[in-house]
Each structure stands twice: as structure tokens, then as C-alpha cells.
DNA sequence: TATGATTGTGAGTGGAGACTCATGTTGTCA
DNA sequence: TGACAACATGAGTCTCCACTCACAATCATA
């Protein structure tokens, strides 16, 4: 807790590190943008050289900005998670809160079917502290949507958060690996949503009906 | 169970190729067994050397039996698919046909959570002609179970085969990558099964006059 | 503009892993 | 039991890829 309070200690608002030179900043952004596209298409096994080539820089430049391939992947994850969190907030504040959860799941599965990154995000890449915070936010965002959905009666009251997250990850993985088309996505999700909704008369199905 | 008359007349019992020398047959079986365990634990990225070491043979021996790592993987897939198909037949012939589909899905998801091979089988490894036949059988087996389940009223009538297969792959992937424990598996599957069932008043209860 | 610090460059290094092949070993059958 | 084909061996080749570093280019500041 022994921290100085001098304003000179916080040179910037971007997180506590030195400001980048103009060209460096430009390259960094270019690399992230290209990497996002490349990894989205080919998955995390795509080579760093391909990213460098796409960004029009030498491979050394990529490693100057991101000391490790893993670091690059996590930078992308972070951006992706932030965007997802914004989406969640918007849905939570929307005018149809009961449907927000379904909308979000639908959207994520659709993205997963097209971008490997989304799925990677949820499982394959190691999660370190950089990403952990955003992931926690995502969890909380889904929880908020779930709460609203339960309160609105769109989702059964006994559905738990970890079940929803499990379904979300499973559906995303399935959509990606098996290459579901939009129609199949829609129909499959409809079944799952039906399960989440349960019958209109919620009281009847409280417990005991499993198996 | 078609028995041949002369042992000398059957050059092989494995599908139409040359008979193996005793030691070769022994090694081949050993390799498959070890590979199954290794790939189940570490996924298809485990090295061929590890398999060789586990089987107590040199790496050249592995490549003598399976010219390619891919070939080895597919040999395993084939065995796995055959076992799954047997399981399907048993369930289809069982005394609770309506529940057979649910039992099968539950079983597969449980295996997926413990063995990477099952999931690989469904997506990651390339499928060639060797495996394609068994995969088709699997598909048909699930279809048979689905038919029975629909007829028994355990599954809604408008549920299609590709939807069930999509759910199956998604759940398996999810269970593997996110490492669901048995409890979470059960609860998550319960939601999906609920979705497959639809409203209970629609069909089952062994009462007539279903709308 | 001059100067130094920051950044970019890309051939090079090291390691991992699939696959080969010349040589040694073993099962099988006459 | 001898002889040979079938089989096993494992060091070596080849390719790919993450990551490094000595040096060159470029930006920011006086």
C-alpha cells in the first residue's frame, strides 16, 4: 500500500505504461487488427509470421510488441471480451430484458460459427490475469441477463448460471467445429431455449422430473 | 458369426489384407491400445514417439503399421465408432426405447468429459472413407433411437435428426473443453432433454388422445 | 538540423515432431 | 535346422514455427 500520490506517477490513462511513439502505435494497432482476422479464420495455430506478413511488418516487430504469441492472443481476447461486455450491457438495458439472454446466446453462437476466436476465448487459450477480469465481467453480465430473464418468466427459476454458461460454451464449440449453418443454429437453439423456458406453469416442474 | 471351413483358407479376418506375422500382430494391437489411451488423455497432438514408447516399440514400428499419424488416429476412431454403434444397437433393442436416446447422449457426454478422443472423433480429425461408413452407421443408429423416442412421446415430433446431432456434438465439445463435472453434466443435459421433450402433456403418460 | 532514444528488420537459433532407411533381428516353413 | 522374407530398430532428415539479436531506420526533442 505504499504508493506515491504524485500525479507525475501516472503519465497516461491507458493503463500505467509508457506512451508509444506514433509509428509504434500505428503498427501495434495494425498487428492486432490483422491478428484478429487471421486467428478468427485459422484458429490459434496460425503462425505469427502470417500475422506479420498481413500487417506488413517484420516478424521481429510483432514480437517487440507482444513478447509471446500467447500475449498477442490474449490482447485479442481482451478486446473481444470488452466488446462482448458492451453488448451485454446494451441487452441488459434494452426494452426486452426477458429475451436478452436468448439474443445474446444466439449472437455468440452465430459468431462462433464464423470466428474461431470466440470459441478459443472460451476454452483453449490459457486465461491469465489480464483476461480474467473481463471474463469475470462476462460471467456477471450473463448472470444479470439470466436474473432478468428469470424474473420476466422467460427462463425457469431453477436454472443456474453455470448451466447457462455450459450450454453457451457447448453450443459455441458445436457451431464452430461442426460448421452449423444459420438454419441449423436457429433450430438447435430453439430446442435449448425451450428447455430453459420450461412449461408456462413453473410450479409443476420444480423437482423430481429429471429423468 | 460365419465360420470358415479351413483355417488355411482365411488369409485374414480383418478386412481383406495380408495376414500378419505373430509378433507383428501383437505389436499392432499393443500400439492401438496404447495410442487409444495416450490420445484420449492428451488429444491428437500427442506425439507418435510417446505412443511408441508406451507400447515398448521403436517409432519406426509404429510407422510401419500405420504409414501416417492420421492413419493411426483413424484406426482408433474406427474402433471407437464400432463400439458406439454396438451401444446404440443395445439401446435400441432395450426395454426402455423412449429413454434410449437420452441414455446414449448422457453416456457420450460423460465419455467426452474424460476422453478427448470422443470429441476428436466428431470433428477435429479428418474423416476418410475408412471411417465414413461407421459414422454413417452412428448417424443411422441415433436416427433409430430418435424415431423410437418420438414414437414413445419422449421427444417432440418435430425434432429433427440434425438438431439432435448438433446438440450431441455441442454438448460433447463443451463437456470436454470446459471440463464439466458429473453434476454439471447432469443438470445441463436435463435442460436440453427438457427442450427435446417439449411439454409433457403433449404426448406421453401412456394415455391416449394425444393431440 | 543534429542527436539520441525508440522502433523496425530479418537472417539465425533451437526445439519439436512427423517420417525415412540402411541395417540388424526374428518368425515361419521347407 | 537353415534360409529367407517379414519385421523391428533408432539415428537421422526435413519441415515448421516460436523466438532472438546485432544492426539499420525512424521519430521526437533541443
Could you explain how this protein is built, in words?
2 copies of one chain form a homodimer. By secondary structure, chain A is mainly alpha-helical. Chain A has 2 domains: 18-67, Arc Repressor Mutant, subunit A (Orthogonal Bundle); 80-199, Orthogonal Bundle (Tetracycline Repressor, domain 2), CATH 1.10.357. Chain A is 68% helix and 0% strand. Chain A has helices at residues 22-42, 48-55, 59-65, 69-93, 97-114, 116-122, 129-152, 161-178, 182-197. The N and C termini of chain A lie far apart (54 Å). Mean pLDDT of chain A is 85; it is low at 1-15 and 201-211. Chain A binds a DNA duplex (30 and 30 nucleotides) through helix 1 and helix 3.
User: Biggest interface, and residues per chain?
Assistant: A-B, 34 and 36 residues
Number of strands of chain A: 0
CA radius of gyration of chain A: 21 Å
CATH homology-level superfamily of the largest domain in chain A? Tetracycline Repressor, domain 2
Helix content of chain A: 55-70%
How many distinct helices of chain A? 9
The CATH topology assignment of the largest domain in chain A is: Tetracycline Repressor, domain 2
Sequence of secondary-structure elements of chain A: HHHHHHHHH
How far is it from the N-terminal to the C-terminal residue of chain A, by CA? 54 Å
Oligomer: homodimer
Mean pLDDT across all amino acids of chain A: 85
Largest sheet of chain A: none
Number of domains of chain A: 2
Structural class of chain A, by secondary structure, is mainly alpha
